[in-house]
Design a protein that fits this description.
The complex is a heterodimer of chains A (160) and B (584). Chain A is of the alpha+beta class. Helices cover 29% and strands 42% of the residues of chain A. In chain A, α3 packs antiparallel against α4. The two termini of chain A are 31 Å apart. Classes of the chains: A alpha+beta (160), B alpha/beta (584).
């Protein structure tokens, strides 16, 4: 079962390696990891995507919570969170196939960020699952290179 | 505010924390701190330094000091090999939750990452075995960092921390002011006790037919022994203590049911496994206690008192989890129970009778032989110190450690200091030196094996030179006995590399070379007088090694093989019987 964890940490040297070390120690693979600044100076947010059982998740959450630099850890559940990711795809695009690719891109809201005679670099911002779909769709055309930032997320806006 | 160097600030910070003794070895990247120590001593500082012979020894001394005193142990080492030599002790403190502040020198900040001479990434290499660590590159950060280090080491579940300080930070100047508060927004160990959970625990305790206290080292670390004793006397519930929990509850108390696990008495294992309510306090359901987890105490509900939330439900689910500091939690439980049974109760008498029956039916056993038996030696050393409340025991790791656990009687908290989780051979001698530094008036006795002794015996030199005399009772069986026992029982007697015998070393000569009084005992008739002489010599200020030759064939029983359950317990004699049957 996959889970998204959102960890607020003090922006101190080694904070990230302390967290990643806990996963390594227990043999869990981190599927994606994104780190960046937050609304508070000196505080970073780490968003982690991991594949582990519920019991293991509880254990790793408690272990991370104990770290001195960790201010808060929460699980982002799909229903209660907004999740986004950015991807860049360099796709083989000979002139005769560009029309189809542009139509897919239009449908998925992907933009052309660079263009060459035989390839296009698409950029796409969206829900990670939508990025997966676009990737599947353009794969037969030949993905020459690809990079994804790893998912980031926040709790949904307060409704009341 | 006083202007001083970073090195001076380190010493002043240690003084401000009330440290009276620290353990270490100087080197190039910590030389400035040792210079500050020298100058402080010349100016009348009370901070004493014990020069170990190996940094691992310094670390174990700091552990022994911490566990005998309840204070934070301090170890100091230089960069590179000084730091790596400390690592075993840090890992040991991590596993047994011993509060330790390790201060290491580091290459100058401008040289970090260049593979400079004696550079090693101290914070990186210790990452998985510390509660927290700091790399300090500015002198001005030293006081607040050391303040934070002591705070983290001893709050929540105690454990080791590392402060790695670059040489230039030790040399640079700062305006020294020791902070009154720590600024650690992410460090919030539990402080409160949840009343509803306490009420639920009290109810479960009074309803249970076969309750048992399962006590770990957390009770000692959490200073909750007095409350535990009151609770037991109020409720009449039997107690088992783990290896690290030994001495948290008096061994001679009639409700003490021994030690559970791989080499615990059969009665203790039966009691724990047949109970209907396990009241775990500061214990972590270690595999050496539970064996096969799915078969462990199968009919028991669990109340788990624990300061570290991550331990609750890690191995065994708790129906009533209580994540809180143990001492106030037990105070609250006592108050809740007193409301319902103000004058105590007779207790679960059927259950206690049953356990007493098991104690009678399955006592610890061994048989005398031509050679001295290790159990016989432990009984002799126990009896020669009987009735004294000023004895602190340490052990190495292996068979002798298990016999020490089984046979020694420890009635006061912090009187039994052994390497539990990490199982560090060689722990005993340096831990004893540290314990002696913490309790100079106590008689500190290390029960050691010949394998362990050869790893760290050199710290007898430290004991001699620093006026920290200890007694070592060396159970010499000429082999790495516990491994040999496994080879005999599970590897068809293929004794691969466990034979230590031969004419060397001459343990008595070796001990004398380190400044100790030494005596070799080969016959039971000499044993009592040798031990009595050892205690007398030690009281006169000498370290003493009593080198006792004992039977190499003797094995530790009972034994629950690794991964098996209490039902598979092998008792004394039954293994031999099984072998005889097989031979027929």
């Amino acid at each position: 079962m996959k889970h998204t964890l959102s960890v607020l940490v003090e922006d101190k040297p080694g904070a990230l390696s302390r967290i990643s070390n806990l996963f390594a120690r227990r043999g869990y693979n981190i599927e994606s990891l994104a780190v960046g600044q937050t609304e508070r100076a000196g505080v970073s947010r780490i968003t982690l995507r991991v594949d582990c059982a519920e019991h293991s998740l509880e254990q790793i959450t408690k272990q991370i919570h104990k770290l001195v630099n960790v201010l808060r850890i929460t699980e982002l559940t799909p229903d209660d969170a907004v999740e986004r990711e950015i991807a860049l795809f360099t796709v083989a695009a000979p002139p005769e196939r560009r029309g189809e690719l542009m139509a897919f891109a239009d449908h998925y809201g992907a933009r052309v960020s660079d263009l060459g005679p035989q390839e296009i670099v698409f950029e796409m911002v969206g829900h990670p699952e939508d990025l997966d779909s676009f990737e599947e769709l353009v794969r037969p055309y030949g993905i020459k290179e690809m990079v994804r930032t790893g998912r980031i997320g926040l709790s949904r806006a307060v409704r009341h | 505010m006083t202007r001083m160097t970073g090195a001076d600030a380190i010493i002043r910070s240690l003084e401000a924390e009330g440290v009276d003794v620290c353990f270490g070895i100087p080197g190039g990247m910590i030389i400035d701190t040792y210079d500050a120590l020298y100058r402080a001593a010349a100016n009348g500082s009370k901070l004493r330094h014990v020069l170990a012979r190996h940094e691992q020894g310094a670390g174990h001394m700091a552990e022994g000091y911490a566990r005998a005193s309840g204070k934070v142990g301090v170890a100091i080492a230089t960069s590179g090999p000084g730091t790596t030599n400390l690592i075993t002790a840090i890992a040991d403190a991590w596993m047994d939750s011993t509060p330790l502040v390790c201060i290491t020198g580091q290459v100058p900040s401008t040289k970090i990452g260049t593979d400079a001479f004696q550079e090693t990434n101290a914070t990186g290499i210790t990452l998985p075995i510390v509660k927290h660590s700091w790399l300090v590159q500015k002198a001005s950060e030293i006081p607040a960092t050391i303040k934070a280090a002591f705070h983290v080491a001893q709050t929540g579940r105690s454990g080791p921390v590392l402060v790695d300080i670059t040489k230039d930070a030790q040399i640079a100047e700062l305006d020294f002011k020791y902070p009154e508060h720590v600024d650690l927004p992410g460090w919030n160990p539990p402080k409160k006790v949840n009343h509803r959970q306490i009420a639920a625990a009290a109810k479960a305790i009074l309803e249970a037919d076969k309750p048992i206290f399962y006590i770990g080292g957390g009770v000692i670390n959490g200073e909750a022994s007095a409350e535990l004793l009151e609770l037991v006397e109020l409720t009449n519930i039997p107690v088992v203590t783990t290896l690290t929990g030994k001495s948290a509850f008096p061994d001679s108390h009639p409700l003490n049911t021994g030690h559970p696990g791989m080499h615990g008495g059969k009665y203790g294992n039966l009691a724990l496994n047949r109970s209907d309510l396990v009241i775990a306090v500061g214990a972590r359901f270690d595999d050496r206690v539970t064996g096969n987890v799915s078969a462990f105490a199968p009919n028991a509900k669990v109340i788990h008192f624990e300061v570290d939330a991550a331990e609750i439900g890690k191995i065994r689910d708790a129906q009533i989890p209580i994540c809180a500091p143990l001492q106030p939690a037990l105070v609250r439980l006592l108050a809740e129970l007193r409301k319902q049974i103000p004058d105590g109760r007779e207790g679960p008498t059927d259950w206690i009778d049953k356990i007493n029956g098991w104690k009678e039916e399955f006592p610890l056993r061994y048989e005398l032989g031509d050679l001295l038996k290790p159990q016989q030696i432990l009984e002799a050393v126990r009896d020669v110190t009987a009735g004294r409340d000023d004895v602190v025991w340490t052990t190495g790791v292996g068979q002798h450690q298990m016999w020490a656990m089984q046979y020694l009687v420890c009635d006061r908290p912090r009187s039994f200091i052994s390497s539990g989780g990490l199982g560090t051979m060689g722990f005993g001698v340096p831990a004893a030196v540290g314990a002696k530094a913490a309790r100079p008036d106590a008689t500190v006795i290390c029960i050691d094996g010949d394998g362990c002794f050869q790893m760290t015996a050199k710290e007898l030199t430290t004991a001699t030179l620093h006026g920290l005399p200890i007694i070592v009772v060396l159970l010499r069986n000429g082999s790495l006995g516990m491994v040999r026992q496994w080879q005999e029982m599970f590897y068809d007697e293929r004794y691969s590399q466990t034979d230590l015998t031969g004419p060397i070393p001459d343990y008595a000569k070796m001990s004398e070379a380190f400044g100790a009084v030494a005596m070799t005992v080969t016959d039971s008739s000499e044993l009592d007088s040798a031990l009595e002489r050892a205690i007398a010599e030690n009281a006169a200020g000498r370290s003493v090694v009593v080198d006792v030759v004992c039977d190499p064939e003797e094995k530790v029983f009972p034994m629950i093989p690794a991964g098996a359950s209490a039902a598979d317990i092998i008792e004394y004699g039954s293994h031999e019987k099984a072998k005889e049957v097989e031979a027929r």
